[in-house]
Specification:
- The chain is mostly helical.
- The chain has a domain at 67-205: Tetracycline Repressor, domain 2 (Orthogonal Bundle).
- It is 74% helix and 0% strand.
- It is built from ten helices and no strands.
- It has helices spanning 12-27, 34-41, 47-51, 55-82, 90-111, 116-127, 132-155, 161-181, 183-188, 194-205.
- It is elongated and about 55 Å long.
- The model is unreliable at 1-7 (pLDDT under 50).
- Residues 33-52 bind DNA.
- Keywords: DNA-binding.
- This is TetR family transcriptional regulator.
Length: 207
């Protein structure tokens, strides 16, 4: 069996966990094996095992890698709003969320299979029911995003920004879930556009 090469490129572990995310999104947690990653990356059989001996180690490294990328993406998305002097308007915020969702859907359309990162993330939601560490990371991800959203609602004058952010984030997760799995139903109903998000923002402001 190959051993982990100390002189190997530092991104070898990242390459393995990136491949694992793709496999997790494509085939679910049962498809995530050392051998599947070796095949996908063209590695000699046993290479992934040299870096992550147990399957549990591989799964948790993949989950941590996925959520670390989530944390960076969340911080980057909200940084643009933090740098603005003026408070965001509900219309601007609604359009921003609609544009973000449109980008996700464009990625799905281009791949023809959906966003593997998003599908892997939903697979982690299922895993969180059984794995305490995955559940902790999932809750940390939710809390990080809700914290950013609460700051936006506070700047818009919401009387209870934390409650408003929690309500809006619940609706937002439902919107992204629907976009991932039943986009045609949302299109037929004329939802998931800026007007839809404006209604959700208005409702959250009253929470």
């Amino acid at each position: 069996m190959p051993t982990a090469d100390p002189c190997a490129p530092p991104d070898r572990r990242a390459a393995i966990t990136d491949a694992a995310i793709a496999i997790l999104g494509e085939g679910g947690s049962k498809a995530l094996t050392h051998r599947a990653i070796d095949r996908l990356l063209g590695y000699a059989e046993g290479t992934t095992s040299a870096y992550f001996r147990r399957r549990e180690d591989l799964v948790m490294a993949t989950v941590r890698h996925l959520f670390a990328a989530d944390f960076r993406r969340i911080d980057m998305l909200f940084a643009a709003w933090a740098d603005k002097d003026d408070a965001p308007s509900p219309d601007d915020l609604a359009q921003w969320f609609a544009d973000t969702l449109a980008q996700v859907r464009a990625t799905q359309a281009e791949s023809g299979r959906g966003d593997m990162g998003m599908l892997a993330r939903y697979e982690c939601f299922l895993m969180a029911r059984r794995h305490p560490e995955t559940n902790r990371l999932l809750r940390e991800s939710f809390a990080r995003r809700t914290g950013h959203t609460a700051q936006l609602f506070a700047r818009m004058g919401a009387p209870h920004p934390d409650r408003a952010a929690t309500q809006f984030e619940i609706a937002l997760r439902g919107a992204f879930f629907s976009a991932a799995f039943v986009p045609d139903l949302m299109d037929e109903a004329g939802l998931l556009n800026a007007a839809h998000f404006r209604r959700e923002i208005d409702a959250a402001m009253l929470a």
